[in-house]
């Protein structure tokens, strides 16, 4: 499994509003199957920092069940 770091395509939404151009990561299985994807980060450094945090913390993470109130 591996992380891919990429820059989202820059897209013009309207004549005055643009989107994209932010940094993102995807966690992939062999064959390029995406398992998880990130939000956008303003810098590559912040994007890579979030990967480092996941890589360090995931091994010790617990799973919590959250139930909606009835």
Write up this protein.
InterPro entries: DUF1508, YegP-like_sf. Residues 21-61 form the DUF1508 domain. It comes from Tardibacter chloracetimidivorans. This is DUF1508 domain-containing protein. Pfam families: DUF1508. By secondary structure, the chain is α+β, with helices and mostly antiparallel strands. The chain has a domain at 1-10 and 20-51: YegP-like (Double Stranded RNA Binding Domain). It has one helix spanning 44-57; strands at 2-7, 11-12, 18-19, 23-29, 33-37. The strands form two sheets. Strands 1-4-5 form a three-stranded antiparallel sheet, with helices on one face. Strands 2-3 form a two-stranded antiparallel ribbon. Strand 2 and strand 3 (18-19) form a beta hairpin. The longest helix is centred in the last third of the chain and has 14 residues, at 44-57. It is extended.
Topology-level CATH name of the domain at 1-10 and 20-51: Double Stranded RNA Binding Domain
Task: Identify the quaternary structure here.
Answer: single chain
For CATH, the homologous superfamily of the domain at 1-10 and 20-51 is named as YegP-like
Order of helices and strands: EEEEEH
State the CATH architecture of the domain at 1-10 and 20-51.
2-Layer Sandwich
Morphology: extended
**Beta-strand content bin:** 25-35%
Write down how many β-strands occur, each being a DSSP E stretch of 2 or more residues.
5
Biggest sheet layout: 3 strands, antiparallel
Task: Give the overall average pLDDT.
Answer: 86
**Name of the CATH first level of the domain at 1-10 and 20-51:** Alpha Beta
